[in-house]
Amino acid sequence: MPATTTRAAPLINPLVAAISLAAAAVEAAPLDIVNAGFESPYFVPGGGSNNNVTPDGSVLPGAFPVGDPPTGWTLYVPGAMPAAAYVGILNPTAGTFFPAGAPEGSNVLLLYVDDPAGGPAYGVEQVLTSALAPLTRYTLTVEVGNIASGSGVNPPVTSFFGIEGFPGYQVQLLAGGSLLAQDDSTLAPGEGEWATSTIVFESGASHAELGQALRIRLLNLNRPATMTVPAQNGVEVDFDHVRLDATAVPVPALGVACAALAGVLLRTPRRRC
Ligand SMILES: [Ca+2]
Ligand SMILES: [Ca+2]
Protein backbone atom coordinates (compact mmCIF):
# COMPACT_ATOMS: atom_id res chain seq x y z
CA MET A 1 0.00 0.00 0.00
CA PRO A 2 1.51 3.37 -0.97
CA ALA A 3 2.82 5.40 1.86
CA THR A 4 1.61 8.66 0.36
CA THR A 5 -0.79 9.90 -2.31
CA THR A 6 -0.58 13.08 -4.33
CA ARG A 7 -3.35 15.63 -4.64
CA ALA A 8 -1.60 17.80 -7.24
CA ALA A 9 -3.27 16.20 -10.27
CA PRO A 10 -6.86 17.25 -9.48
CA LEU A 11 -5.71 20.88 -9.24
CA ILE A 12 -3.73 20.99 -12.48
CA ASN A 13 -5.64 18.73 -14.84
CA PRO A 14 -8.96 20.61 -14.86
CA LEU A 15 -7.14 23.83 -15.64
CA VAL A 16 -5.14 22.30 -18.47
CA ALA A 17 -8.20 20.53 -19.81
CA ALA A 18 -10.30 23.68 -19.67
CA ILE A 19 -7.74 25.81 -21.43
CA SER A 20 -7.11 23.11 -24.04
CA LEU A 21 -10.85 22.80 -24.65
CA ALA A 22 -11.19 26.53 -25.17
CA ALA A 23 -8.24 26.61 -27.57
CA ALA A 24 -9.40 23.63 -29.60
CA ALA A 25 -12.93 24.92 -30.23
CA VAL A 26 -12.09 27.56 -32.82
CA GLU A 27 -11.69 25.65 -36.09
CA ALA A 28 -14.09 26.64 -38.87
CA ALA A 29 -15.89 23.84 -40.66
CA PRO A 30 -17.63 24.25 -44.04
CA LEU A 31 -21.19 22.97 -44.00
CA ASP A 32 -22.57 20.90 -46.88
CA ILE A 33 -24.49 22.82 -49.54
CA VAL A 34 -25.85 20.94 -52.55
CA ASN A 35 -24.76 22.46 -55.86
CA ALA A 36 -23.22 25.45 -54.08
CA GLY A 37 -21.54 26.69 -57.26
CA PHE A 38 -24.37 25.83 -59.67
CA GLU A 39 -22.12 23.48 -61.63
CA SER A 40 -24.37 20.41 -61.44
CA PRO A 41 -25.89 19.28 -64.75
CA TYR A 42 -28.84 21.46 -65.71
CA PHE A 43 -31.71 20.14 -67.73
CA VAL A 44 -34.65 22.18 -68.96
CA PRO A 45 -37.76 19.99 -69.03
CA GLY A 46 -39.18 19.99 -72.53
CA GLY A 47 -36.23 21.82 -73.99
CA GLY A 48 -36.97 25.04 -75.84
CA SER A 49 -35.50 27.49 -78.29
CA ASN A 50 -33.32 29.04 -75.63
CA ASN A 51 -32.22 25.74 -74.17
CA ASN A 52 -28.54 25.70 -75.19
CA VAL A 53 -28.04 22.75 -72.86
CA THR A 54 -26.11 19.74 -74.05
CA PRO A 55 -27.39 16.17 -73.52
CA ASP A 56 -25.11 15.73 -70.51
CA GLY A 57 -26.61 18.78 -68.79
CA SER A 58 -23.66 21.08 -69.34
CA VAL A 59 -24.44 24.67 -70.34
CA LEU A 60 -22.74 26.04 -73.44
CA PRO A 61 -20.38 28.99 -72.94
CA GLY A 62 -22.41 32.16 -73.26
CA ALA A 63 -25.74 30.34 -72.86
CA PHE A 64 -28.43 31.07 -70.29
CA PRO A 65 -31.11 28.35 -70.22
CA VAL A 66 -34.05 28.88 -67.88
CA GLY A 67 -36.56 26.49 -66.36
CA ASP A 68 -36.63 24.69 -63.05
CA PRO A 69 -34.42 25.84 -60.17
CA PRO A 70 -30.98 24.21 -60.25
CA THR A 71 -30.39 20.89 -58.49
CA GLY A 72 -30.56 21.26 -54.72
CA TRP A 73 -32.52 24.53 -54.81
CA THR A 74 -36.24 25.24 -54.80
CA LEU A 75 -38.27 28.26 -55.85
CA TYR A 76 -39.05 30.73 -53.05
CA VAL A 77 -41.63 33.46 -53.53
CA PRO A 78 -42.40 35.62 -50.47
CA GLY A 79 -45.51 37.14 -52.07
CA ALA A 80 -47.02 37.02 -55.51
CA MET A 81 -44.90 35.45 -58.21
CA PRO A 82 -43.75 38.23 -60.55
CA ALA A 83 -44.84 37.95 -64.14
CA ALA A 84 -42.21 36.88 -66.65
CA ALA A 85 -39.74 35.86 -63.93
CA TYR A 86 -37.16 33.22 -64.70
CA VAL A 87 -34.74 30.98 -62.84
CA GLY A 88 -31.87 29.45 -64.70
CA ILE A 89 -28.18 29.00 -65.26
CA LEU A 90 -25.80 31.35 -67.07
CA ASN A 91 -22.42 30.27 -68.36
CA PRO A 92 -20.61 33.62 -68.68
CA THR A 93 -17.30 32.22 -69.90
CA ALA A 94 -18.22 33.56 -73.35
CA GLY A 95 -20.00 36.73 -74.36
CA THR A 96 -20.03 40.10 -72.64
CA PHE A 97 -22.41 39.57 -69.74
CA PHE A 98 -19.59 39.12 -67.20
CA PRO A 99 -16.20 39.87 -68.78
CA ALA A 100 -14.39 38.10 -65.93
CA GLY A 101 -16.57 35.00 -66.24
CA ALA A 102 -17.90 33.10 -63.25
CA PRO A 103 -16.39 33.58 -59.77
CA GLU A 104 -16.33 29.78 -59.36
CA GLY A 105 -16.36 27.14 -62.07
CA SER A 106 -18.21 27.99 -65.28
CA ASN A 107 -21.82 28.54 -64.25
CA VAL A 108 -23.83 30.91 -62.07
CA LEU A 109 -27.44 31.19 -60.94
CA LEU A 110 -29.56 33.72 -62.84
CA LEU A 111 -32.74 35.36 -61.59
CA TYR A 112 -34.13 37.36 -64.50
CA VAL A 113 -37.39 39.28 -64.84
CA ASP A 114 -38.38 40.16 -68.36
CA ASP A 115 -39.77 43.55 -67.33
CA PRO A 116 -37.66 46.54 -66.33
CA ALA A 117 -40.60 48.02 -64.42
CA GLY A 118 -39.92 45.73 -61.48
CA GLY A 119 -42.37 43.95 -59.20
CA PRO A 120 -42.48 41.37 -56.39
CA ALA A 121 -39.30 39.71 -55.13
CA TYR A 122 -38.55 36.04 -55.76
CA GLY A 123 -35.64 33.63 -55.65
CA VAL A 124 -34.43 30.22 -54.56
CA GLU A 125 -33.70 28.56 -51.26
CA GLN A 126 -32.06 25.42 -49.89
CA VAL A 127 -32.67 23.65 -46.59
CA LEU A 128 -29.39 22.24 -45.32
CA THR A 129 -28.78 18.99 -43.50
CA SER A 130 -27.06 20.96 -40.74
CA ALA A 131 -29.04 22.28 -37.79
CA LEU A 132 -28.56 25.44 -35.79
CA ALA A 133 -26.12 24.66 -32.98
CA PRO A 134 -25.43 26.64 -29.81
CA LEU A 135 -22.29 28.71 -29.28
CA THR A 136 -21.54 28.73 -33.00
CA ARG A 137 -20.56 31.48 -35.39
CA TYR A 138 -21.95 31.07 -38.91
CA THR A 139 -20.38 32.90 -41.84
CA LEU A 140 -22.36 32.87 -45.09
CA THR A 141 -20.49 34.07 -48.16
CA VAL A 142 -21.99 34.46 -51.63
CA GLU A 143 -20.81 36.11 -54.84
CA VAL A 144 -23.39 38.58 -56.16
CA GLY A 145 -23.34 39.71 -59.79
CA ASN A 146 -24.79 42.57 -61.81
CA ILE A 147 -25.05 41.25 -65.35
CA ALA A 148 -24.19 43.63 -68.18
CA SER A 149 -26.21 43.99 -71.33
CA GLY A 150 -25.11 41.89 -74.27
CA SER A 151 -26.08 39.51 -77.01
CA GLY A 152 -26.47 35.78 -76.99
CA VAL A 153 -23.66 33.89 -78.73
CA ASN A 154 -25.42 30.57 -79.31
CA PRO A 155 -27.89 30.39 -82.21
CA PRO A 156 -30.78 30.79 -82.31
CA VAL A 157 -30.45 33.09 -79.28
CA THR A 158 -28.27 35.87 -80.66
CA SER A 159 -30.44 38.90 -79.97
CA PHE A 160 -29.42 41.81 -77.77
CA PHE A 161 -30.56 41.83 -74.15
CA GLY A 162 -30.68 45.22 -72.42
CA ILE A 163 -30.09 44.38 -68.77
CA GLU A 164 -28.62 47.64 -67.54
CA GLY A 165 -29.31 48.48 -63.91
CA PHE A 166 -29.48 46.34 -60.80
CA PRO A 167 -32.70 45.11 -59.16
CA GLY A 168 -31.25 44.61 -55.66
CA TYR A 169 -30.91 41.33 -53.81
CA GLN A 170 -31.08 39.61 -50.46
CA VAL A 171 -28.86 36.84 -49.12
CA GLN A 172 -30.52 35.29 -46.09
CA LEU A 173 -29.56 32.74 -43.44
CA LEU A 174 -32.47 31.14 -41.60
CA ALA A 175 -33.18 28.36 -39.14
CA GLY A 176 -36.64 26.89 -38.83
CA GLY A 177 -38.94 29.81 -39.50
CA SER A 178 -36.61 32.54 -38.24
CA LEU A 179 -34.39 34.88 -40.17
CA LEU A 180 -31.01 34.80 -38.45
CA ALA A 181 -29.16 37.34 -40.59
CA GLN A 182 -29.27 38.83 -44.05
CA ASP A 183 -27.49 41.06 -46.51
CA ASP A 184 -30.27 43.36 -47.64
CA SER A 185 -28.71 44.59 -50.87
CA THR A 186 -25.79 46.40 -49.29
CA LEU A 187 -23.56 45.84 -52.31
CA ALA A 188 -23.80 47.64 -55.64
CA PRO A 189 -21.56 45.83 -58.14
CA GLY A 190 -20.99 47.66 -61.41
CA GLU A 191 -22.35 46.41 -64.71
CA GLY A 192 -20.75 43.07 -65.52
CA GLU A 193 -19.06 42.83 -62.11
CA TRP A 194 -19.19 40.63 -59.03
CA ALA A 195 -19.03 41.52 -55.35
CA THR A 196 -18.71 39.32 -52.28
CA SER A 197 -21.56 39.27 -49.77
CA THR A 198 -20.70 38.11 -46.25
CA ILE A 199 -23.05 37.83 -43.29
CA VAL A 200 -22.20 36.54 -39.82
CA PHE A 201 -24.48 35.15 -37.14
CA GLU A 202 -23.59 33.87 -33.65
CA SER A 203 -26.13 31.57 -32.06
CA GLY A 204 -25.19 32.09 -28.40
CA ALA A 205 -25.83 29.61 -25.61
CA SER A 206 -29.56 29.50 -26.29
CA HIS A 207 -31.80 30.29 -29.25
CA ALA A 208 -35.41 29.49 -30.03
CA GLU A 209 -34.42 27.68 -33.25
CA LEU A 210 -31.63 25.46 -31.88
CA GLY A 211 -31.83 22.08 -33.59
CA GLN A 212 -33.80 23.43 -36.54
CA ALA A 213 -32.41 23.02 -40.05
CA LEU A 214 -30.42 25.89 -41.49
CA ARG A 215 -31.69 27.44 -44.71
CA ILE A 216 -30.14 29.72 -47.32
CA ARG A 217 -32.15 32.06 -49.54
CA LEU A 218 -31.00 34.05 -52.56
CA LEU A 219 -33.48 36.67 -53.77
CA ASN A 220 -33.94 39.10 -56.62
CA LEU A 221 -35.71 42.14 -55.14
CA ASN A 222 -36.98 43.00 -58.61
CA ARG A 223 -36.65 46.75 -58.22
CA PRO A 224 -37.21 48.82 -61.36
CA ALA A 225 -34.20 49.31 -63.59
CA THR A 226 -32.93 52.70 -64.60
CA MET A 227 -33.87 52.88 -68.25
CA THR A 228 -30.89 54.65 -69.72
CA VAL A 229 -30.70 52.41 -72.75
CA PRO A 230 -33.36 52.29 -75.44
CA ALA A 231 -33.62 48.52 -75.53
CA GLN A 232 -34.08 47.69 -71.88
CA ASN A 233 -35.46 44.18 -71.61
CA GLY A 234 -35.44 43.39 -67.92
CA VAL A 235 -33.62 43.16 -64.61
CA GLU A 236 -31.39 40.40 -63.31
CA VAL A 237 -29.18 39.47 -60.38
CA ASP A 238 -26.79 36.53 -60.43
CA PHE A 239 -25.27 34.43 -57.65
CA ASP A 240 -22.36 32.00 -57.37
CA HIS A 241 -20.04 30.20 -54.93
CA VAL A 242 -22.26 29.89 -51.87
CA ARG A 243 -20.29 29.01 -48.73
CA LEU A 244 -21.37 28.55 -45.11
CA ASP A 245 -18.79 28.01 -42.38
CA ALA A 246 -19.52 27.09 -38.79
CA THR A 247 -17.05 27.94 -36.04
CA ALA A 248 -17.49 26.95 -32.43
CA VAL A 249 -17.37 30.09 -30.34
CA PRO A 250 -14.74 29.42 -27.68
CA VAL A 251 -15.64 29.99 -24.08
CA PRO A 252 -13.09 32.56 -22.90
CA ALA A 253 -10.09 30.59 -21.61
CA LEU A 254 -9.72 32.75 -18.54
CA GLY A 255 -13.34 32.28 -17.62
CA VAL A 256 -13.14 28.52 -18.10
CA ALA A 257 -9.93 28.31 -16.08
CA CYS A 258 -11.40 30.37 -13.26
CA ALA A 259 -14.51 28.23 -13.24
CA ALA A 260 -12.40 25.07 -13.12
CA LEU A 261 -10.20 26.50 -10.41
CA ALA A 262 -13.23 27.50 -8.38
CA GLY A 263 -14.56 23.97 -8.73
CA VAL A 264 -11.28 22.48 -7.51
CA LEU A 265 -11.08 24.84 -4.56
CA LEU A 266 -14.62 24.04 -3.54
CA ARG A 267 -13.78 20.33 -3.58
CA THR A 268 -10.47 20.77 -1.67
CA PRO A 269 -10.82 20.25 2.11
CA ARG A 270 -9.86 23.29 4.08
CA ARG A 271 -6.96 23.06 6.43
CA ARG A 272 -7.70 23.37 10.04
CA CYS A 273 -5.96 26.23 11.78
CA1 LIG B 1 -20.12 28.42 -60.35
CA1 LIG C 1 -27.26 44.96 -64.99
Features:
six-stranded antiparallel beta sheet; globular; 273 residues; 2 helices; binds calcium ion; disordered C terminus; Jelly Rolls; five-stranded antiparallel beta sheet; 13 strands; mainly beta; 32% strand
Can you describe what's shown?
This protein is mainly beta and 273 residues long. The protein has one domain (27-267): Galactose-binding domain-like (Jelly Rolls, Sandwich). The chain is 12% helix and 32% strand. The chain is built from two helices and 13 strands; from the N terminus they run αβββββββββββββα. It has helices spanning 8-24, 253-267; strands at 28-30, 74-76, 85-90, 108-113, 122-131, 136-146, 150-151, 160-161, 169-175, 178-183, 193-202, 213-220, 235-248. The strands form three sheets. Strands 1, 3, 4, 6, 11 and 13 form a six-stranded antiparallel beta sheet that branches. Strand 7 (150-151) and strand 8 form a beta hairpin. Helix 1 (8-24) packs antiparallel against helix 2. The longest helix is centred in the first third of the chain and has 17 residues, at 8-24. The radius of gyration is 26 Å and the shape is globular. The two termini are 29 Å apart. The model is unreliable at 1-25 and 255-273 (pLDDT under 50).
